[in-house]
Recover the amino acids of this structure.
């Protein structure tokens, strides 16, 4: 199964890795990694992306807004200044399949203009102008579920039936995207782990991921180093690798097509082991 992503054809017949490249000074686990003092350093960003591509990432997800719980909103100009030069450099220097993690219509358009191949919107194209901007790019779009906004979303998340509510929301966003002229074969879905969800909500969603996969759209999941692992294991962000790998494997087994991670090399090993086991005996 191929996803038509700008200049790229993305093979989703087995799960692929999306490497996270935050151009924020303040993201929860890798904020500031692309900074020299308070200046965004393009060479640092490029080096990190090259390493992830070498380690097995197929997509590089560039984000300029920290959406960690309690994060401060960024201005459009700040986001443009962080994201556009990095996308441009990655496309020019590595011919990478770059996804842009944004909710802002102008950032979507500008990122597409400099060669981004995918849009990843944690707000599911709900911002004013986002549907039209995304449609105009002709690029695939990941629609994610979030309850509330980042500054307050973890205060008191509540659901009757978590899976049903996430599905209702995503179905409404699919319909809105289609009405805006975005073709169904360009849509991906994401239940939005950690975005307005307690540990129990996240676990139920992961367990029931196959039901979301059954809607027929490729699923993107982001579980890497998230605070559900802090809640489950009592571990600090720097100690969540094993937990993140377990979640990546569980998500792949439950139908995730794209796995968004910080630790690309280790996740690539996990997926390689998984695919070897799945392929075993098929040539006998
Ligand atoms: C996600 C994301 C996610 C998608 C972030 C973090 C917070 N985009 N952007 N899915 N998370 N599609 O990496 O912990 O789960 S930012």
């Amino acid at each position: 199964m191929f996803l038509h992503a700008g200049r790229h054809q993305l093979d989703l017949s087995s799960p692929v890795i999306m490497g996270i490249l935050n151009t924020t000074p303040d993201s929860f686990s890798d904020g500031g990694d692309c900074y020299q003092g308070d200046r965004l350093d393009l060479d640092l960003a490029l080096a990190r992306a090259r390493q992830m591509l070498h380690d097995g990432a197929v997509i590089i997800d560039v984000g300029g807004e920290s959406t960690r719980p309690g994060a401060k909103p960024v201005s459009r100009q700040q986001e443009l200044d962080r994201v556009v030069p990095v996308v441009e450099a990655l496309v020019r220097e590595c011919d990478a399949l770059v996804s842009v993690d944004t909710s802002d219509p102008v950032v979507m358009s500008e990122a597409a203009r400099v060669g981004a191949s995918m849009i990843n919107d944690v707000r599911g194209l709900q911002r004013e102008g986002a549907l039209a901007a995304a449609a105009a790019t002709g690029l695939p779009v990941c629609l994610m579920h979030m309850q509330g906004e980042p500054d307050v979303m973890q205060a008191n998340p509540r659901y009757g039936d978590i899976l049903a509510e996430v599905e209702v929301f995503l179905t409404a966003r699919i319909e809105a995207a289609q009405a805006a002229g975005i073709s169904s074969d360009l849509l991906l879905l994401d239940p939005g782990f950690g975005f307005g969800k307690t540990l129990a909500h996240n676990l139920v969603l992961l367990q029931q991921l196959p039901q979301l996969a059954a809607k027929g759209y490729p699923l993107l999941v982001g579980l890497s180093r998230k605070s559900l692992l802090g809640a489950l294991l009592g571990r600090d962000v720097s100690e969540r690798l094993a937990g993140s790998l377990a979640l990546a494997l569980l998500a792949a087994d439950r139908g995730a097509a794209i796995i968004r991670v910080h630790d690309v090399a280790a996740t690539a090993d996990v997926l390689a082991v998984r695919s070897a086991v799945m392929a075993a005996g098929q040539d006998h």
Summary: The two ends are 25 Å apart (CA to CA).
